[in-house]
Write a structure and sequence with these properties.
Elements (H helix, E strand, L loop, with lengths): L2 H22 L5 E2 L4 E2 L4 E3 L4 E3 L4 E2 L4 E4 L9 E3 L4 E2 L4 E4 L3 E3 L4 E2 L4 E3 L1 E3 L13 E3 L3 E3 L4 E2 L4 E3 L2 E2 L4 E2 L4 E2 L7 E4 L4 E7 L4 E4 L8 H4 L5
Parallel strand pairs: 1-4, 2-5, 3-6, 4-7, 5-8, 6-9, 7-10, 9-12, 10-15, 11-16, 12-17, 15-18, 16-19, 17-20, 19-21
Antiparallel strand pairs: 13-14, 21-22, 22-23
């Protein structure tokens, strides 16, 4: 890329950031400088959504925040976080991304589920039910097609592609599978990543997990 093209692209990006900020500053709960949502598919509940400095959401995102009870819902995208294409984020209570979180494409993150107790009523007509607050720790990486439902992800974690996370993942962990389980953790004493006991070479989840 020539220096002229680089300068032009930089100026175009600056213009997009400024335009997005000016047009949306009063629509979101909190919108800080250098944040951007590119060509969203659908956004509901902007008054409950915060994008902190440098937060970027790639194309075709679906952000949904709805008040279903006495609690005020909230979605917070932390400083410098980058969410991939076709991400779907849903909150009826609280979904929080820490700083510099990275998600791949087609990630689903929610603090709620559809009710299904009434077998005489289609599930689509049954009310949403809060499950648990969701938080993604600073510096974590969420792989492609991951689902996180009512769970907390610690700092600097890696969640492998196609994992379904329904329980908390501690700091500095690698988790894969359905349901997701931790296969590696960082050992601060020895300053190295160590395999969790029970993960052997015959376990495809432990050996052949793929991150995208």
């Amino acid at each position: 890329m020539t220096s002229l093209k680089r300068i032009i692209l930089t100026q175009v990006l600056r213009f997009k950031l400024l335009l997005f900020y000016v047009l949306n500053k009063r629509k979101f709960k909190r919108l800080e400088i250098k944040s951007l949502i590119m060509n969203p598919l659908r956004i509901e509940g902007k008054e409950y959504i915060s994008l902190l400095t440098g937060a970027v959401i790639q194309s075709h995102a679906f952000l949904y925040a709805e008040k279903i009870d006495e609690y005020v819902p909230e979605i917070i995208i932390g400083k410098g976080s980058v969410l991939g294409n076709y991400n779907h984020i849903a909150s009826v209570r609280k979904v929080v991304f820490g700083e510099e979180v990275l998600t791949s494409d087609r990630v689903y993150i929610s603090d709620n589920l559809h009710g299904f107790e009434n077998v005489n009523l289609p599930i689509m007509h049954q009310p949403l039910k809060f499950k648990a607050e969701v938080s993604i720790g600073d510096g974590s990486w969420i792989g492609e097609n991951v689902c996180i439902i009512g769970a907390r992800i610690g700092k600097n974690c890696v969640i492998g592609a196609n994992a379904v996370v329904t329980s908390d993942i501690p700091d500095y962990s690698v988790a894969v599978g359905i349901p997701a389980r931790v296969i590696k953790k960082y050992d601060p004493k020895n300053r190295m990543w160590v395999k969790i006991a029970g993960c052997d070479q015959n376990d495809s989840d432990c050996v052949n997990f793929i991150f995208k």
